[in-house]
Amino acid sequence: MARYINLYGYFLLQRFKILMEYRMNFLIGVVSMLFVQGAGILAIWVVMRQIPDLNGWRYDEILLIYGILMLSRSISHMLADNLWTVGRHYIRTGGFDRFLVRPIDPLFHLLADRFCHDGIGTLLVGLALVVKASFGLGLVWTVGMLAYTTVMVISGGLIFIALMLMTATTSFWIMDSIPVTRVVHEMYEFAKYPLTIYHGGISFLLTWIFPFALASFYPASFLLGRDVGWLAWFPPLMAAVLLSGAYAIWRFGLRHYSGTGS
Questions:
Q1: What is the C-alpha separation between 196 and 200, in angstroms, rounded?
Q2: Residue 140 in contact with residue 225, Cβ under 8 Å?
Q3: What is the residue range of 175's domain?
Q4: Of 166, 190, 212, 229, which has the maximum CB count within 10 A?
C-alpha cells in the first residue's frame, strides 16, 4: 500500500509539472467547471423562486444536498476521470498495452496516469455550497458532524468511481464505453434534489441501483436532523460492496482483453 501511495504522489507531481507548463489551460479547466456548476445552481434558484417550498424542502436545504453531491463527485472527477475514455484513448489506440507490461496494477496505473484538474472547480463549488447552506440554515458544525460528512463524502466519491469502473469495463468488448458510462453517470443529476419529490420507483433507483442519493440526500438529511433511518449510515458499506463488485468485473474484463494486435 505504501508503495502505491508513493507512486501516486510521483504521478501527481509529474502531472502538475505538465499542467504548470500550460498555466492558462489549468485555469480555464478549473474556471470552466465553476461556470458549468454555476448553471446548475442557477437552475435550482430559478425553480425555488417560483416554488419556495419544494415538498417541504427550502432553498438552502437543497443547496446542502447539491453541495455534498458535488464534493463526492469531485473525488471521482479528479481521481478517476480516465475511466471515461479508457476505450477511446487507451484500448483503441493500443496505449493500454503498456499498462500490462509494467510491474504495477493496470487499474492503478490507468487512474494515476492523469489527474483531472477540472475537478478542482467541482470541489470548490461543493465547498462553497455547503458553506452557503450552513450560514443560511444556521448549522453549527461540531467535530462529529465534520467527521460524519468527511466519511460520507469519501464514500460517495467511491460510489461514483465504482459505477464508472463498471461501465468503463465494457470498453474491453465495445471499445468505446462513453455512451454506456454517460447513461449511468448522468443519473446523478436526479440526486441534486430531495428524493421525496420523486415517485417511489425513482427513489428506489437512486438508492439501490444507481445509489447517487447515498452521496447527497441521505447524508444531508442526517445533518439537517431529518429522520432517514439507518440509510444515513449506509454509504460506506454500499461503497465497499460496489467497489468490490466493480473490481471483480474489471478483472474479468482484463482477462478477456486480447490487445490491439489480435
A1: 8
A2: no
A3: 2-255
A4: 212
